Sequence to fold (351 residues):
Amino acid sequence: MARMRLAVNVMVLVVLVVLLAAMAANAEEVLLRHKFVAGQELAYDLWASGVAQMNFSGVGLPAEAEGSEMRGPLSMTMEMNTQYRVPVESVDEQGNATVGLRMGPMGMQMEMMGHKMHSTMDPATGTFEFEVNGEAVELPTQQMAQGWLGLWQGLTATISPRGKVLSISGLPELPAGSMAQMPMLGDFFANLQEMMADIPAWLPEEPVSAGDSWAVQVRFPLPGMAPATPAELKVDYTVERLGEIDGHRVARLGFDAAMEGLDMDLGMLAGLGGQAPPGAIEKMRMSLDEAIDGKLYFDVDSGQLHSAWGDILVNTEVEAALAEQAEKAGGSFEMQTQMQMKMHFVLSAAK
Fold:
């Protein structure tokens, strides 16, 4: 009996020591800062998967068209993967780093209504390929996609130790056809510097310990989309614990973000910048609510993002109408769509 009591006392003592050590570790204060080193290259793999469900109503097409009625719900699954690379070109005395922002080849698979779609984009070569059930398909926005890919070929940014983008340069020359297809893409590039200037640093100014929290609020316009209200995204961060991974001190941050009530006029997107052919959808309006929550692991010692994962919930409502020239030809098209998409993503340092 005495031996049993001794064993129990020893076990209780061990548990207390472990608890006290954990409490001491989590009482520690740390200063969260990016620590860039000139010549290094950070690389991260991104993987995401999701499922969407769509409901359609109010659909009407020209009488001669087949399938003049559509009914929901329709389901879609998707999966994508890519890699981001961040080569550090230089670091000044204040720790501000000039870095390149590069995206590797991206693959995406989707399945909807029994059809399998696969797309690949490679910024290094500026190529975009799209297949449906194994057959190559040329999309009307092919040049626009190539213009978007050009964004990742030479983009350079200056980032502060707290993670604020101080400047951005190296925006690409857009392919000639992409501006006609998507004027909002040119507006996006033209206003990118101003947009970034309004985004605050994401790391807190003061040292933090377990339990501390802070919020980052971002308001930004959506060029070319004429939103009734600016997009507003609020992100809340909380230090959940301080621990170790591979001998490095790592802060685990819980985060959740929300963007609610975004109302956008997508006329330019739907009508391809006024170049809508007969039968194209020209008038389109969308409202969107988005919520994200997950975990982020920040390496305190190296000053680098270690990994992150999260879940995204997006609810959208879309109203669309047929282009005017198609209506004059005797067609009519009005549609209301409700879609809910759930996605899970994982971001990790590339091995």
Remarks:
- The domain at 31-349 is CATH 2.30.230 (Lipovitellin-phosvitin complex; beta-sheet shell regions).
- The chain has a mean pLDDT of 75.
- The helical segments are 2-27, 142-150, 176-181, 183-197, 267-271, 324-328.
- Residues 56 and 71 are 6 Å apart (CA to CA).
